[in-house]
């Protein structure tokens, strides 16, 4: 895909990995819709950084746990840019949940954001993506292959997102490619102590944590060079999946 002049919607693009993806795509010539839920100033800062690359960029607020808001987000982006070529489903909830702390409300909210919203957004954007011969990239998680009982809802939602990626790849072929990126450590959660970070890093074959820029580079790669790739889940985890 030639990215110059395309329009990309990146969810959760105000901070961390989403911001890095938005900046990488803007540097490649994409016009970018920066989605956020609460981090308005961060989103506006990301928009300014994208615009510095000479492209158009706008911030769009939506709570993706609300199906109507998710559909409205796509409508707003199409209303502003007139087209949509790339959808990057990056936004997610990452909250601790064990059997002891399980609640139906928190479980359902996590699944609505991490799993249902990517489906709703893709369905809402389908016509535009098919017209453009576009791409959908879902941010999965390499940890979805491990039994991780401290993050019940998150791990289950990300495992299901891998299955959704494959199903959508079949459903949208041949006009739209759908690919999953599965980060390992991409940006440390703020509550992880230095000892926890060191312990996790030691288990990574490449012996370093990943960065948001590593994930953005992977997204750029599958968009630019992945014309014959669909339904695949690409681990970007320093070999952590092998350990």
Account of the 3D structure:
The protein has a seven-stranded parallel sheet, with helices on both faces. It has a single domain (7-242), classed as NAD(P)-binding Rossmann-like Domain (Rossmann fold), CATH 3.40.50.720. Helix content is 46%, strand content 14%. The chain starts with 6 loop residues before the first strand and ends in a 7-residue tail after the last strand. Helix 1 packs across helix 7. The protein contains seven helices and seven strands. The chain has helices at residues 16-27, 40-51, 67-81, 104-132, 152-172, 194-202, 212-225, and strands spanning 7-10, 31-36, 57-61, 86-89, 135-139, 177-183, 233-236. It has 243 residues and is of the alpha/beta class.
* SSE pattern: EHEHEHEHEHEHHE
- Largest beta sheet, briefly? 7 strands, parallel
| CATH level 1 name | Alpha Beta
Q: Quickly count the helices.
A: 7
The total strand number stands at 7
Quickly count the domains. 1
Just name the CATH architecture.
Answer: 3-Layer(aba) Sandwich
Q: Strand order of the main beta sheet, please?
A: 3-2-1-4-5-6-7
Distance between the termini: 33 Å
CATH homologous superfamily descriptor: NAD(P)-binding Rossmann-like Domain
Alpha-beta content class: alpha/beta
Beta-strand proportion: 5-15%
Estimate percent helicity: 40-55%
CATH topology: Rossmann fold
Low-confidence runs: none
Q: Averaging pLDDT over every residue, what do you get?
A: 95
């Amino acid at each position: 895909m030639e990215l110059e002049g395309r329009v990309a919607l990146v969810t959760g693009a105000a901070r961390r990995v989403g911001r890095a993806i938005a900046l990488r795509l803007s540097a490649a010539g994409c016009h970018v819709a920066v989605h956020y839920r609460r981090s308005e100033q961060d989103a506006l800062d990301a928009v300014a950084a994208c615009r510095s690359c000479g492209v158009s960029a706008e911030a769009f607020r939506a709570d993706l746990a609300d199906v109507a808001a998710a559909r409205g987000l796509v409508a707003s982006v199409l209303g502003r840019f007139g087209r949509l070529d790339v959808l990057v489903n990056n936004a997610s909830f990452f909250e601790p949940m064990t059997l002891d702390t399980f609640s139906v409300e928190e479980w359902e909210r996590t699944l609505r954001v991490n799993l249902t919203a990517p489906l709703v957004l893709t369905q809402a954007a389908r016509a535009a993506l098919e017209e453009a011969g576009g791409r959908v990239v879902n941010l999965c998680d390499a940890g979805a292959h491990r039994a991780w009982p401290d993050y019940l809802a998150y791990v289950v939602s990300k495992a299901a997102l891998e299955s959704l990626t494959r199903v959508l790849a079949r459903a949208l072929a041949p006009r739209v490619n759908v690919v999953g990126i599965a980060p390992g450590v991409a940006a440390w959660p703020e509550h992880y102590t230095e000892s926890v970070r060191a312990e996790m890093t030691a288990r990574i074959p490449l012996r370093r944590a990943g960065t948001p820029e590593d994930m953005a580079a992977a997204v750029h790669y599958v968009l630019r060079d992945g014309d014959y790739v669909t339904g695949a889940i690409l681990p970007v985890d320093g070999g952590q999946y092998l350990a």
